[in-house]
């Protein structure tokens, strides 16, 4: 089985929260392992893409999250996108961005026992980040 088919199978059985958790962990892993300009640029591009996908979902009419929470997450997303650009240009610490992702992971893990929100017709989340 090819890697892409395996990933598609995994995403088909995973809840939206599980897919989001994987995406944040994946991006944080890339940032933690970034040791040179190229790996740093790839990690920051993936982080920017992750937040682009999240913001797009958050502003979509079918998003089931409360309006206040959506607004706060969109604000965090805009900050994260700005931060990725700044860190690409200045080579500064990726820790603030990684800390935000750890907070998102913690919040998603805390909700594991709750029912997942209704899925949208969008492609699998992890597939859009990778």
- The total beta strand count reads 0
Percent of residues in helical segments?
over 70%
Major sheet description: none
Broad shape: globular
Strand content: under 5%
Low-confidence stretches: 116-126
Rg for CA atoms: 15 Å
Mean pLDDT: 85
Number of helices: 6
What separation lies between the terminal Cα atoms?
18 Å
Element order: H for helix, E for strand: HHHHHH
Structural class: mainly alpha
Describe the structure.
- The structure is a single chain.
- The protein is mainly α and 130 residues long.
- It is 75% helix and 0% strand.
- The chain contains six helices and no strands.
- It has helices spanning 3-13, 16-33, 37-59, 67-90, 95-110, 125-129.
- Helix 2 packs antiparallel against helix 3 and helix 3 (37-59) runs antiparallel to helix 4.
- The radius of gyration is 15 Å and the shape is globular.
- The model is unreliable at 116-126 (pLDDT under 50).
């Amino acid at each position: 089985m090819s890697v892409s088919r395996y990933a598609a199978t995994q995403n088909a059985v995973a809840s939206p929260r599980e897919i989001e958790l994987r995406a944040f962990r994946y991006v944080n892993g890339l940032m933690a392992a970034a040791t040179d300009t190229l790996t740093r640029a790839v990690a920051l591009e993936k982080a920017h893409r992750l937040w682009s996908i999240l913001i797009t979902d958050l502003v979509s009419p079918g998003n089931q999250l409360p309006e206040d929470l959506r607004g706060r997450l969109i604000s965090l997303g805009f900050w994260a996108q700005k931060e990725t650009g700044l860190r690409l240009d200045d080579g500064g610490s990726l820790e603030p961005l990684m800390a935000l992702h750890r907070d998102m992971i913690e919040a998603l893990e805390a909700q594991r026992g709750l029912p997942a929100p209704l899925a949208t017709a969008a492609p699998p989340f992890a597939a859009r980040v990778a």
